[in-house]
Amino acid sequence: MESYKQYWNPNIETMPKEELKQLQLKRLISQVDYVYKNSQFYRKLYSQAGVTPEDIKSLEDYQKRIPIIQKDDIRKDVSPENPFGGVNCVPSKKLMIWVSTGTSGVPTFGGRTREDLILMIENLSRSFWAVGFRPGTKVIQQFGNWHWSPSNLVVACNRMGVKQMMVIGASIGPFAQRAAVLTKYFKPDFLVLPATFTQLMIQEAIKMGEEPTELFSGIKKILISAEVLTPLTRKRLKEKAFCNAEVHFYAGGGESQVWPVDSCYPECDGGHLWEDLVLSELIDPETRELILGAERGEQVTTNIATKGTPYLRFDMEDLVDMYYDSCVCGRTHPRVTIIERADWQIKVAGKTIVPFDVRTIFEEFPETEEAIFKIQKYSQKMDKLKIVAEYDRKKTKDRKELRERLRQRIKEKLGLESEIEWGQVVVPSMDQVTHKIVRIEDLTKEKK
Hints:
Layout: H1 10-13, H2 17-38, H3 40-48, H4 59-65, H5 71-75, E1 96-99, E2 109-112, H6 114-131, E3 138-141, H7 149-160, E4 163-166, H8 173-186, E5 190-194, H9 195-207, H10 212-215, E6 221-225, H11 231-240, E7 246-250, E8 261-262, E9 271-272, E10 278-283, E11 296-303, E12 314-323, E13 335-341, E14 346-348, E15 351-353, H12 355-362, E16 373-377, E17 385-389, H13 399-414, E18 418-422, E19 440-442, H14 443-447
Parallel strand pairs: 3-4, 3-5, 5-6, 6-7, 16-19, 17-18
Antiparallel strand pairs: 1-2, 7-8, 9-13, 10-11, 11-12, 12-13, 14-15, 16-17
Helix pairs in contact: 2-3, 6-7, 8-9, 12-13
């Protein structure tokens, strides 16, 4: 078997940490000056904060003086004449425009220069090479072509010499059937798919009369996006279909240009975040204060090399775990795991809960392992967890008894009393979901 280099970009990926920090700081200081001179949004923001580029000489200066921004800060200035909200540093006619998923509201418009696209492809090439992409590797990728990432990954695959079959279209039933057929004849090594599409592929394989564990037996690795994977989800995917595959999660954001794939080695948590391209900070979700050296927090990122629409101290609104210890693979960049949307956190009886916590419990029971559910935020102060959920009618003998088992398990694992209502959850069905399922229903907004 032909031997390939271990790293896509060895000089950068294994750069000594002190050198990496110096490079990062140099680019950071230059970027502050660049956006101040070229972006209407940042010049106004920094002027209001009483800061100029000359004030930023260190990372401490940057963290102390430069304001953290959120999507809503940019959305206030968005208009048909100004779709980027003034963040752009380059005229729109020179940009390739992309749009975010809109998970938290109105989608964000961004734009990349030719040089930005090269950096994004470099970013993806490093991450996917780390997880095992090599010349000759056969990959089926499915992601709705409305999203910014597929085209970038296609180019990255071409650079790496990967043989790729792309299932263009939305992540819905007909395309899942097509992907299952292609798997049978193309015999890919890797699959790159959204979570719900993965389940649809398994269903379509069964409809075709195929045994999923046989059809997908040649898959070495499956990379799943959009929905954070619970440990039980990984285990059941292997049991139901991908018996010989490693199951990985990958996710990120267009604004951050952070797109890690977990993980380069089984014993390593998270995927590498490339510090020559981005600065990542963590803040406390409640106090909004910077947490130095923290391992869990809300991620704030800064593009230190992007020139089209750079995002500086941008709140990604993702709750993440960061790992700063040395990685056995030899890469010196830190690693990150996305846990959940930060704005999907709720407080119940003094405890902070995210949908991931409830998912891990629902997946323990066959009747609800694939159930759609929503957590209801019914008050600013809540003394118990309220959940509206569906269940598998074929597997359920007594739904009252099932409710009590779930309530007991929630009490054991989360230490909370709960109220579970069976009913139809108003979200798209699985064959209509194209990205994330929003699992928090905020009833307090309706009461205003």
